TrEMBL record:
Organism: Frankliniella fusca
Protein name: Spermatogenesis-associated protein 7-like protein
Length: 563
C-alpha cells in the first residue's frame, strides 16, 4: 500500500485516487486504514422460470488493496449479508442492510486492534471505498431510479434521457455533487431528480453519494456497448458478403485460443443476428471476440470500411478499460476514443445512443477518482454466485434458504481460518521430469540468461505446468518479456518450465517482432532459433498470451489490454 502511494505516473489501485485520499484524510497517521469494496447483486438459486424463483440478495466484501492476482480468487471475496431479495422491496433498503451498516460503521469508527512485529499493537480501521454492482443493483440499493426508462437515469449526472441520446462528451456542469445530491433529496421529487430516497450508505461517516458509487465496466462495456457495436458490424459485413459469418464461425472454431479456450465465443447464428439483433455470448466471450475479430476477418474487409473503424475504436476502448494499470493521463485517450466511437455508431447505424453509451462518457473523469476499472469489475463477484448456487441446488429444503446457504459459507470460512490458510494461492505444479539442460541444442544460447547455480548443475527438474499466483503456465504459451529501443514489445514461447527459488523460471524460444500491425491491433512476430531464460518477476505482463496465425500468412500476438 505504501509503495502504491509513492507511484506518481501510473495508476494501479484506488488507494492512489481522489476518493480514497478524501476518506483516509479523516484518520491520524498512527492508524492503519484498509479499504474494502462492498458488492450487491441478486441471484436466482432455483430454476429461473420455475414457480420458486425467489432471488437471493447477496452482499460480498473484498479487500480493495490486495494485488489483482489475489483479489480475483473467489475465496478472497467474502459473503457479508444474505437475504431474500423480495424482503428488500417489502421492507426497504435500510431494514435489509441494517446489520451490515452497523458492522461497517463499527469497523470504520472503532476499528480492530492487531499486533504487528514492527509496531506492536496497532489499530486498524476498515473503511468502505466503493459500492459495486450492476446498474440496476446499484441504483436500487443507493436510492436512485431503477431502470433505464427513467428521465434522469444516470446516477453520476443530471442529464435527461432525451439529451443523453445525442451527447458525445461529458458535461461537467451536469455532474451531480454531494451538495446538490443532498438538496435534491429535500425536493422529494423522484421524476425531476432521479432520486427515490437518501442512499443508506450515507450513514457511514466517510461515505458520500454519488462519488463513492462505482461504475461497472463488465455490464457497461462487455455486455453493453460492445454488444451493440458488434451486432451492427456483423450485420454490415453480412450484407456485403453472405459467406462472412460462416467463414468467421469456421475460423473461430479452428483457432487455437490456448489459455483463453474456456472463453471461446460460440458460433454466430445469422438468423438470431438478423431477426433479434442479438449475439448469444457472455461478457467474457464478447471480450474475446473483440480482441481477435481483426485477426480472423481482416482479409475479408474492404479498404477504408467505416464499420471496421468502429470495431477498432471499440477494441481501443476495451483495451484501456480492461487494463490492470494505466498511465494517469490515459483518461484523455479514453475520452477521445469513446467520443469517436459513439459519433461513428450514431452516424453508421442511424440509431440514438443508449444509456450504456452515456455511462462510458463518465469513465474519463472516474479514472482519476477510482483507478483502473478492472479492479472494480463485477465479473469475479458474479462468478462467486456459483458457490452459493451450488449449496442452494444441493439442498432440497426451501425453508429459510438464505440461512442454509449462509451457514455453509460460514463453515467454509471457519475451515479456512482453522487451517490457517493464506489469502495467497500456494504454487502448484504438474508432473515433473529430470532434464539435463546442457544436452539441449539451444543450451549455449540460453545458458547466459540462466542463474549461475543452474549453469553449474544443469540437471534440473522440469514441470509440465505450473500454477503461480492464480495463473497457469504451460509450454507453447507466449509471454511478454521485454520492450526494445523502438518501443516494440518482445515475446517468447515457453519451451521448458523450471522451479527456481519457489518461483517459475521459463526457458523460452525467442521471436523477432517485425512491427505493430495496427489494423488488427497486434504485433507481427516471426520465430528465431535462439532461446533465453526469464524469471516470472521480470515479465512485463504476467498473463500468458497466444499466437494467432492470420489467413494472410502473418503470425500475430494480440495483447490483452493497453500496456
Ligand atoms: Zn451521466
Amino acid at each position: 500500500m505504501q509503495s502504491l502511494l509513492l507511484e506518481e505516473e501510473w495508476l494501479f489501485n484506488l488507494v492512489q485516487c481522489d476518493v480514497w485520499k478524501r476518506k483516509v484524510a479523516r484518520f491520524s497517521n498512527e492508524v492503519i486504514v484498509i479499504p474494502i469494496n462492498v458488492y450487491y447483486d441478486e441471484v436466482e438459486p432455483n430454476a429461473a422460470l420455475g414457480p420458486h424463483c425467489e432471488p437471493l440478495g447477496c452482499t460480498y466484501v473484498q479487500i480493495a488493496v490486495l494485488p489483482p492476482e489475489w483479489n480475483s480468487r473467489l475465496e478472497n471475496i467474502f459473503l457479508a449479508l444474505l437475504f431474500n431479495a423480495h424482503d428488500r422491496s417489502l421492507y426497504g433498503n435500510y431494514r435489509a442492510f441494517k446489520p451490515l451498516l452497523q458492522e461497517l460503521k463499527l469497523l470504520e469508527l472503532e476499528g480492530i486492534e492487531i499486533v504487528t512485529k514492527e509496531k506492536g499493537p496497532v489499530r486498524v480501521h476498515i473503511v468502505v471505498a466503493w459500492i459495486l454492482g450492476d446498474n440496476k443493483g446499484l441504483n436500487g440499493i443507493c436510492g436512485f431510479m431503477e431502470g433505464f426508462t427513467a428521465i434522469h437515469f444516470c446516477r453520476i449526472c443530471h442529464v435527461t434521457k432525451a439529451d443523453s441520446e445525442q451527447m458525445f462528451e461529458e458535461d461537467v456542469n451536469l455532474l451531480r455533487t454531494h451538495e446538490d445530491y443532498l438538496l435534491d433529496i429535500t425536493k422529494n421529487d423522484p421524476k425531476q431528480t432521479g432520486i427515490k430516497e437518501k442512499c443508506i450508505f450515507n450513514k457511514l461517516p466517510s461515505f458520500e453519494t454519488p462519488s463513492d458509487i462505482c461504475v461497472d465496466e463488465f455490464h457497461d462495456l462487455s455486455e453493453g456497448v460492445a454488444h451493440y457495436s458488434m451486432v451492427a458490424i456483423l450485420k454490415h459485413f453480412h450484407r456485403l458478403n453472405d459467406m462472412f459469418i460462416p467463414t468467421l464461425n469456421s475460423r473461430l472454431y479452428a483457432l487455437d485460443l490456448g489459455i483463453d479456450n474456456d472463453n471461446r465465443p460460440p458460433g454466430i447464428s445469422t438468423d438470431r443476428l438478423l431477426t433479434k439483433s442479438k449475439l448469444k455470448m457472455t461478457g467474457a466471450e464478447m471480450y474475446m471476440i473483440v480482441r481477435i475479430f481483426g485477426v480472423l476477418v481482416y482479409d475479408m474487409i474492404p479498404d477504408g470500411d467505416p464499420f471496421y473503424d468502429l470495431y477498432l475504436l471499440l477494441h481501443d476502448i476495451m483495451s484501456i478499460i480492461r487494463a490492470k494499470s494505466l498511465p494517469r493521463d490515459a483518461g484523455v485517450i479514453l475520452s477521445v476514443a469513446v467520443k469517436e466511437h459513439n459519433q461513428l455508431y450514431v452516424h453508421l447505424t442511424k440509431e440514438t445512443l443508449k444509456p450504456k453509451h452515456h455511462f462510458l462518457l463518465h469513465y474519463k473523469s472516474l479514472l482519476s477518482k477510482m483507478g483502473p476499472f478492472s479492479g472494480v469489475s463485477s465479473i469475479r463477484f458474479e462468478a462467486k454466485h456459483r458457490m452459493l448456487k451450488l449449496t442452494a441446488e444441493s439442498c432440497m429444503s426451501r425453508v429459510n434458504l438464505p440461512k442454509t446457504v449462509a451457514i455453509k459459507q460460514q463453515l467454509g470460512f471457519c475451515f479456512r481460518c482453522v487451517a490457517n490458510a493464506s489469502i495467497r494461492q500456494p504454487l502448484s505444479a504438474g508432473p515433473c521430469q529430470t532434464v539435463n539442460l546442457s544436452e539441449l541444442d539451444c543450451f549455449p544460447s540460453f545458458s547466459r540468461s540462466l542463474p549461475c547455480d543452474i549453469v553449474e548443475s544443469p540437471i534440473q527438474t522440469v514441470v509440465n505446468w505450473v500454477n503461480f499466483k492464480g495463473t497457469k503456465y504451460q509450454p507453447q504459451q507466449i509471454l511478454l518479456t521485454d520492450v526494445d529501443d523502438d518501443g516494440l514489445f518482445q515475446f517468447g514461447k515457453i519451451q521448458l518450465i523450471l522451479l527456481y527459488d519457489e518461483k517459475p523460471l521459463f526457458i523460452c524460444s525467442d521471436f523477432d517482432t517485425l512491427g505493430y500491425f495496427s489494423e488488427v491491433r497486434g504485433y507481427e512476430v516471426t520465430p528465431l532459433d535462439s532461446w533465453f531464460a526469464i524469471g516470472h518477476g521480470k515479465l512485463l505482463d504476467y498473463h500468458p498470451l497466444c499466437l494467432y496465425p492470420m489467413p494472410t500468412g502473418e503470425t500475430v500476438v494480440v495483447l490483452r489490454t493497453l500496456l
